[in-house]
Automatic annotation (TrEMBL):
The keyword Endoplasmic reticulum does not apply. It comes from Hydrogenovibrio crunogenus. It comes from the Bacteria. One of its GO terms (biological process) is peptidoglycan metabolic process. The keyword Transmembrane applies. CDD domains: YdcF-like. This is YdcF family protein. Residues 83-249 form the DUF218 domain. The chain crosses the membrane at residues 12-35, 44-65. Gene3D superfamilies: HUPs.
């Protein structure tokens, strides 16, 4: 069932990605235009063009991602003791790492910076990385786990401190497989992942009865003060794509019972 969920989610996203939707409508509209189906072409091309212009002109994704990124904040004062640091995969660029034979960071590489910050603060705490390959085409590689070990040790975290889980393909499986590797089953763990992804991660951790303290990194949205019309399509997609995907993920995970709440607002530890 987990494999079916993984496959369906990847296929569905190909048709739900905002940029893909715009391109698909433009392509279909152009095809109908070639066959002189003018009215049908207009029905497809006009909304696609309008949506494309809006994304080009204004960072509309900021409005979608802001509630996610503001949901959890890092504690003002870090706890004195923890049982480990959980780092969710996603900061690596697996395809380019395999292409060039060296570990490459992706847009979510701040997850490694956050892991290093916490590793310095808690020099005896184990660092638990969880992440295999989230790509359907790259399931027979060593995955993100091998890259994570190289990157974390390069940052100066001792190899003996690392616990690597490299089978998981999505956030649900991150916690499903990591749960078995935790040094203290009822312990307290700092959780490092992208800020927009933190609500879903916390919801799954709560459902799995894993006590976590959020340590969000990798913010994609801009503050209200810096949000403006600037005609930068690619930059605007950096917030729109993950925000739209995350809202869909929160909804589907809640419907399928994989998370404790649709939009969690407290961790298991603080809610008790």
């Amino acid at each position: 069932m987990d494999s079916l969920f993984f496959i369906v989610s990847k296929i569905a996203w190909a048709f739900l990605s905002p940029s893909n939707i715009i391109l698909i409508l433009l392509i279909l509209g152009s095809i109908f235009l070639l066959f002189n189906r003018t009215e049908t072409a207009k029905t497809l091309l006009l909304p696609a063009s309008l949506a494309g212009f809006i994304v080009l002109a204004f960072p509309i994704g900021d409005l979608l991602i802001q509630p996610l990124e503001q949901r959890f904040k890092s504690p003002e004062t870090l706890p004195k003791d923890i049982d480990g640091i959980i780092v969710l995969g996603g900061g690596e660029d697996l395809k380019r790492s395999l292409s060039w034979g060296r570990p490459e960071l992706g847009i979510g590489g701040d997850r490694y910076i956050g892991a290093k910050e916490l590793a310095n603060h808690y020099p005896k705490a184990p660092v638990i990385f969880t992440g295999g390959s989230g790509s359907m085409q790259l399931q027979n590689t060593k995955g993100e786990g091998s890259l994570a070990r190289q990157l974390l040790t390069t940052l100066g975290i001792a190899n003996k401190r690392l616990i690597i889980e490299s089978l998981s393909r999505n956030t649900y499986e991150n916690f499903k497989y990591t749960k078995k590797l935790l040094p203290a089953r009822q312990g307290t763990y700092m959780l490092v992942t992208s800020a927009f992804h933190m609500p879903r991660a916390v919801g799954i951790a709560n459902k799995q009865a894993i006590h976590v303290i959020p340590y969000p990194v990798d913010y994609r949205g801009n503050s209200d003060k810096l949000r403006k019309i600037d005609f930068d399509f690619f930059d605007h997609l950096k917030s729109l794509e993950p925000a739209w995907k995350e809202w869909i993920g929160l909804t589907v995970y809640y419907w399928t019972g994989k998370t404790s709440d649709w939009l969690p607002e407290t961790t298991l530890q603080t809610s008790q």
